[in-house]
From TrEMBL:
This is Uncharacterized protein. It comes from Eumeta variegata (Bagworm moth). Residues 80-99 are annotated as: Disordered. InterPro entries: RNaseH-like_sf. Residues 80-89 have a biased composition (Acidic residues). It comes from the Eukaryota.
Length: 156
């Protein structure tokens, strides 16, 4: 939803509890999505962006390769209206002629899967140790002694 709709929805929801966004709310916490940043700029309160979300995105940027790919795709038939660039087929569906020249450039970033080589070995070692403790009741019992000392109770 657009930021303006988000603000209006927020106002309506708060009004159900007899809370006024302008007078009763001092601050809001949101993630860093552009629509939420814009929402924060539209309301007269302090906005704090979520540090945990920012930290997660930062870690992904550092640990994983970004496989940027750019491809050009012709614009879908549904987007263009009946114009001179179109002609009708035998089945009645419009065809976009190759001369229309309309294409969309699609940029996609893949951050899943491939770790940056500098971190790959250490991340794999940490994952192996975590699996070892997670899957072994005996090793987990040893670890629970330290957990109990730290937190005062056993944590599953």
């Amino acid at each position: 939803m657009p930021a303006t709709v988000c603000v209006e929805t927020l106002r309506k929801k708060l009004k159900k509890f007899e809370i006024d966004l302008d007078e009763d709310i001092v601050a809001i916490t949101t993630d860093g999505a552009s629509v939420m940043v814009k929402t924060g700029s539209l309301v007269p309160v302090f906005q704090q962006l979520c540090y945990a979300h920012s930290l997660q995105l930062g870690i992904l940027d550092v640990l994983y390769k970004k496989n940027e790919s750019i491809r050009q795709e012709p614009i879908d038939d549904d987007i263009l209206d009946n114009s001179e660039a179109e002609s009708n087929d035998n089945d009645g569906r419009p065809n976009i002629s190759e001369n229309s020249g309309f294409t969309v450039e699609v940029v996609s970033f893949a951050t899943e899967g491939e770790l940056i080589p500098d971190f790959k070995d250490i991340i794999n070692k940490v994952r192996k140790i975590v699996r070892m403790f997670k899957c072994s009741p005996t090793k987990n019992d040893v670890l629970q002694k330290y957990v109990k000392n730290e937190f005062g109770r056993k944590i599953e």
